[in-house]
Amino acid sequence: MEDRSREALKKGPDSTTSADGALPEQKNEGSGAEGQKTGKPKAGTVRILIAVCVVCAAGFLYWWNQPAQRLDRALKKADSLMQEESYEAAAARYTEAATIEPENTRAQEGLLEAWTGQADALARETDIPARAQACDLYSRILLQCRSMKDGSYEDPDHLDQVQTQTREKLDQLRAQIAEEYDRVETVTQTDDRSGKAVLPDGTEKPYTWHYDLVQISDEYYPYRDALNEVLARERDAFFADTEGTLAGAAAGGSAEGDYRDYVGVSGIYSGQGLLNIRMAEVRVLGRTRVNIYRGRTYRLSDASQVTLADLVDRTDSGLRRLVKRRVRDWLSTEGYRDISRSAIEEYAEETDPGDFKFSLRDDGTVCVVIDQEVPFFATGTEILEIPLE
User: At 88, which helix (H) or strand (E)?
Assistant: First the structure.
């Protein structure tokens, strides 16, 4: 008895036997393959799972990148940005949607609304660059409306309403900005079309033919493009009027003497809300020389051309009397004794107040201009600038 107990203690608690006398670790012996089913999945099964995942991912990406899905996402994001008043970002999303489907009504209308919101916000700013950007956006809206009318948009009345409201905003804002301009910056570009004419004896006679074109360079001045176009048209008219005349005169003339016809700028005044370009046409055909004043003055607030009558606070008769007196006194002081008083009076009385030529000096002094188109000075060889009071 004691020997058996002592033997059991030596074997320890794990060495006890089961009821049938078998040891625990011996019970599963000989159980076969069923005891080995706790390992990893087979390689073939893994490959199948991976292939299924790849196919599913490819199918999702294909669906995700379909035009209809991209359009829907862009429109939803744009609508959300509009609610947040993030107009610039919303415009980018609507533009993206319109790129996917150009005739999409929701994208077209949303783009107009986003640009309008962005422009209205900028129009309330105090600095000119921001408000100038608003003008650009309003102009873009008008262009977009015209483009939509040319397309398949089905509500032209709505577009007419948007155009009317936008045009009013644009005109008001441009006028507001222009009113704040006291002066503008300009650049002068010479359009040179000089050449050579062939004389009867076969020799070549060079001639000078060019025009100094003044252009406004201030990028924020709202009427820059309109006024630059006016100035360019004057340049074009000069070349159209003189085309062939100069070359023909040079070819038919002698080898001696100069043949020139050009418009040159002698000065530019910008201040007091005005832009005055002092320029003259010089025409030399052999021994004949003509100097004609071609100056122009524009009001910056509306880009309209200004006359001497607009600048001088006088009635028509008062302006004529002023010109008559100042021209007469100045010519007398400067020694022009051969010009009669009656000729000056006749010129002043017969000239329409809006047709008096004038210039603005660098200090802003207003001068009446006398050139060879004035009857009593037809033989003059210079252009006179006579200061007014």
Answer: helix 87-100
CA distance 168 to 186: 29
Query: For the residues of 103-130, what is the DSSP string, one character each?
Result: T-HHHHHHHHHHHHHHHHHHHT-SSHHH
Burial class (CB in 10 A: 0-12, 13-18, 19+), 84: exposed
Host H or E run for residue 290: strand 288-293
Residues 6+ apart with CB under 8 A from 275: 183, 184, 186, 216, 227, 268, 269, 297, 298, 300
Residues 6+ apart with CB under 8 A from 201: 255
Q: Answer yes or no: are the C-beta atoms of 357 and 311 closer than 8 Å.
A: no
Range 337-352 average pLDDT: 94
Residue 288, both tokens: 């004949």
SS3 17: coil
Burial 257-267 (b: 16+ CB within 10 A, else e): eebbbbbebee
Summarised one tens digit per residue, pLDDT across range 198-252 is 877 778 888 999 999 999 999 999 999 999 999 999 999 999 988 777 777 777 7
Sheet holding 366-370, edge to edge: 358-360, 366-370, 384-387
Residues 39-87 have pLDDT tens digits of 566 666 766 666 666 556 655 554 455 777 788 888 999 899 999 999 9
215 and 187 in contact (C-beta within 8 Å)?
yes
